[in-house]
Write a structure and sequence with these properties.
Elements (H helix, E strand, L loop, with lengths): L1 H20 L7 H19 L1
């Protein structure tokens, strides 16, 4: 299980970083929060 979570969190980081980088080009904080919550839900699905 830990290897799976590690893989998910590393791919999650890959998803979050471009969002932060693109913040100046119109990605709003609510959008960032939405993507983050979506990622956390996916992690919870993997964990159970």
């Amino acid at each position: 299980m830990p290897p799976v979570l590690r893989f998910c969190s590393s791919s999650g980081a890959a998803t979050v970083q471009p969002v932060q980088r693109n913040a100046a080009t119109g990605v709003t904080p609510p959008m960032k929060k939405y993507l983050w919550n979506k990622m956390k839900k996916e992690l919870e699905l993997v964990r159970t």
